[in-house]
Amino acid sequence: MHIMATGAELFVDAVKRLGISHIFTLVGDHLNEVLAVAAREGIALIDMRHESGVVHAADAWARVHRKPALTLVTGGPGHTNSLTGIATAQAACSPIIAVSGAPATASRNRVVFQDMDQVGTAAPITKWSAAPATAAQIPFFLSNAYVEAAAGRMGATHLTIPVNLFTASADAAIPMANTPTQLPAHPTTDSADRVIQLLRAAERPVVIAGSGVWWGDAGAELDAFLRKTKLPYYSITMARGVLRDDHPASMGYADPALNKAVHKAFQAADVALVLGKRLDYRLALGSARLFSPAAKFIQVDIHQQELGHNRNLELGICAGAKESLAAFNQALGKEKWKETAWFRQNKTWRDEAASKLDDLAESERASKPMHPASFFAEWKKHVPENQLYAWDGGDFVHWGRATIAANRAGGWLRLGPMGTIGSALPNSLAMQLAYPNEKIVMVTGDGSLGFYIAELDSLVRHNLPVIIVVGNDAGWGLERELQSALIGGDTTVACELRSTRYDTVMKGFGGEGETIDRVDQVAAAIGRAYASKKPYLLNVKIRGSRSPFTEWQIAGKK
């Protein structure tokens, strides 16, 4: 005797078998059946206020947990709203499964409500986009979306599931696809030996690590490698915090827009070992703007097509960062290199850059409104050194990124290559879910906050006591500074906002907060924020001031 199950029941059963514990969602007509089953079966439903915010939160959940996360939104505009989040996750190589409901299949192409080609619109920004034809196919398609999202270079997948498939019954489901179990490739012994030879022969080598060391869980191997070789180490993207910024080899951010030491170090380097990092816009595409044309590049990446994409390589290794570093350590054996004058020079450049920021912060300490450098210099005195951060975009935020140390693996969440400003708010929601016993700090600007401001309500409803720091200079600060530098004059175009009391907005949603405009108010405000059991918004009145990030942007445009 067959036991009949609905498509919704088959979907939720497949979700549980895939080990997915949370569904990020926003309710809609196409979803009521499946949401009811998910709630009945004990799946945590994180319901939010905007579909793009839903996907951003899932993206952050996937990055923190290093495995696929699931979203469920309604069709039509719910689907189109989700596309920005999907594109953001895909650019960040974050494994998400974005599921959209849809009108019944019998009504397709008949000008019915919210009918559109959802599979087609998602296809260009995903690894895989599809739609099951029957309820029985749902588990297979969902598991296949999981496999595609998690395999190789991870990324976004999409499924459109019409409402009639959730309500239809099936007496036998097509078997689920096997989830990926293969490990990333190992480098050959010859290639590992060649890496060590190149680094040993170099006079001015640098190591640059990106998200691959986080996704590959390569922290222990990276630490052992750097302690053996004593090479200057720079981190960027999700590599931030994999090794603490006070690690003996760490020279801080690999981003020349935020770390003034980088340009000097990379211009002088004769060999660059790049681990799990694209030679993208953050590294000036490997160009002469940042690197010597004579420098030899060694690139390790799990994605074959990335090797040599923007710069000719001395050696390319298609393998995982963890496996590669383990092979490099084996090639080194018990060998330990001595600290060089080059290493000490990198430390000097790092310390000089930090001192300049400290000096600026001190010289502007009495300014009112506050200078961002002064705010962040005071901020870091009063928060835990292992604080977890969700960083947004904007000039105020970039002052913080240049000032604050990254000391937690997986605890330095950025927007990613799409630069999707505003997404730090849903990102912080997911981070707070992932770390229920710690405070998450979200840092944003007043412009960026506006994109998903209704998610303040989501924080309150889900009892997530995120601390939100809003740099309020009543404008789109970064664009204001760019226009001032590149167009000239005091007049800006479309850059000015009202000086809104965002702490009052937070209170309106049921949270807490306050406004501060002097450095001597910072410590007490931090104390109140950390003591609060509700989301707490600090509306920080600042003066617009061109960040190191923006100075780099301006220099590149001239």
Protein architecture, described:
- This protein has three domains: 5-170, Rossmann fold; 189-346, TPP-binding domain (Rossmann fold, 3-Layer(aba) Sandwich); 364-557, Thiamin diphosphate (ThDP)-binding fold, Pyr/PP domains (Rossmann fold, 3-Layer(aba) Sandwich).
- The radius of gyration is 24 Å and the shape is globular.
- Helix content is 40%, strand content 16%.
- With 558 residues, it is α/β, with parallel strands linked by helices.
- The mean pLDDT is 93.
- It has 22 helices and 20 strands.
- Might you state the CATH topology name of the largest domain? Rossmann fold
Provide the domain count: 3
Q: Would you identify the CATH H-level superfamily of the largest domain?
A: Thiamin diphosphate (ThDP)-binding fold, Pyr/PP domains
Low-confidence runs: none
Q: Gyration radius, to the nearest Å?
A: 24 Å
Instruction: State mean pLDDT (0 to 100 scale).
Output: 93
Give the CATH class of the largest domain: Alpha Beta
Number of strands: 20
Which of globular, elongated, flat, extended, rod-shaped describes the shape?
globular
Beta fraction of the residues? 15-25%
CATH architecture of the largest domain: 3-Layer(aba) Sandwich
Q: What strand order characterises the main sheet? A: 3-2-4-5-7-6
| Helix content bin | 40-55%
Helix tally equals 22
Main sheet overview: 6 strands, parallel
Features:
Rossmann fold, alpha/beta, 3 domains, six-stranded parallel β-sheet, 558 residues, 22 helices
